[in-house]
Amino acid sequence: MATIFSKIAAGEIPSYKIAEDDRFYAFLDINPLAKGHTLVIPRQETDYLFELDDQLLADMMVFSKKVALAIEKAIPCKRIGVAVLGLEVPHAHIHLVPLNAESDISFSKPKLQLPNEEMGAIAEKIRSGF
Ligand code: AMP
């Protein structure tokens, strides 16, 4: 059965798209830790990031770098933090989180709930710098 993230990458479930190519898709996390919190996924359905083959994993990191640089241009932050959890959605993904403080990437703190218009505006701003 297709994962929710496969359906997002296929456009069957809506998302705040940041960037895509034939192998990867980036979109805003719906419950962000910080404004601009983005997920990067491979279109290939694999649960665990470290089960991806070496080349795909390396290319995914390069794709994530491009996304991170676009986030940095759009969101005031010191740098972009990177995390891999995968405890909730069984489709490999990398979290890119704008950081001003270490606590900005604490997954145990309450998530933000931003209005649709703000999520759309954030996505548009990041997309335009990609
Ligand atoms: P984890 O699998 O533990 O890395 O967490 C999955 C992440 O995906 C969480 O941060 C969720 O907020 C996020 N998430 C789950 N469903 C969606 C969705 N439909 N659109 C965007 N982000 C999502």
TrEMBL record:
Domain of life: Bacteria
Motif (Histidine triad motif): 91-95
Gene Ontology terms describing biological process: nucleotide metabolic process
InterPro entries: Histidine_triad_HIT, HIT-like, HIT-like_sf
Annotated GO MF terms: catalytic activity
HIT domain mapped to chain residues: 4-107
Protein name: Histidine triad (HIT) family protein
Organism in which the protein naturally occurs: Marinilabilia salmonicolor
